[in-house]
UniProtKB/TrEMBL annotation:
Residues 1-23 form the signal peptide. Residues 41-191 form the Haem-binding uptake Tiki superfamily ChaN domain. This is Haem-binding uptake Tiki superfamily ChaN domain-containing protein. Pfam families: Cofac_haem_bdg (PF04187). Keywords: Signal. InterPro entries: Cofac_haem-bd_dom (IPR007314).
Length: 196
């Protein structure tokens, strides 16, 4: 998707809201207050970007994510769903999934190549997106680039590899994006790495 969208994007990351699956509670990270689904949805309708925390192996968290997506869809909010679980080099398969060109049986191996957690945890979100033609956006950097940078450093990337990264990507850990993440996650534990 090359167009710039001014729409809510649901990212399955740990940042502004955290879902506590065991209690079914939604906690606002900024002030640690519990909010209702209606409060969260009202806030989500008014912003361009919604970031939803998750515990990868907790079905209740994925159910909550789907509830938020459904709520926004019911209110006719235009949206796309950004997925940490998919690498950017799988975007075409995501597009084919949403357009109905791939069956579930064809798509499951693609999902498994991208993410080690059980397909069934995420299945309902993917099915809902396909059935409602909600664009899915692959957010993760391809694994081979992650491995190369972790072993050899960012400078080892070729010009071609850098060209395939999001614009402005660099290895400078002293940038405004990193500072924002440090502030936002100061009191939270999160297993998500953000690339910029």
């Amino acid at each position: 998707m090359s167009k710039t969208f001014r729409i809510p994007v649901l990212l399955l990351l740990c940042l502004f809201f955290s879902a506590q699956a065991h209690a079914g509670a939604i906690t606002r990270v900024s002030d640690h207050q519990t909010v209702t689904m209606q409060q969260l949805t009202a806030k989500a309708e008014a912003v361009d970007l919604v970031l939803i925390g998750e515990v990868h192996d907790k079905p209740a968290v994925h159910d909550l994510q789907l509830s938020i997506i459904r709520s926004l869809q019911d209110k006719k909010q235009p949206m796309a769903i950004g997925l940490e679980v998919m690498q950017s080099n799988s975007q075409q398969q995501l597009d084919d999934w949403v357009s109905g060109k791939m069956t579930e049986e064809q798509f499951q191996p693609v999902f498994a190549q991208n993410w080690s957690y059980d397909w069934r945890l995420y299945r309902d979100i993917f099915i809902f997106a396909r059935d409602n033609k909600i664009p899915l956006i692959a957010l993760n950097v391809p694994k081979e680039i992650v491995v190369k940078v972790s072993r050899q450093g960012y400078k080892a990337l070729s010009k071609e590899e850098i060209k395939n990264l999001p614009p402005g990507t660099n290895a400078d850990l002293n940038n405004t994006h990193t500072e924002f993440l440090k502030r936002a996650l100061k009191h939270r534990h999160c297993a998500t790495a953000a690339w910029r």
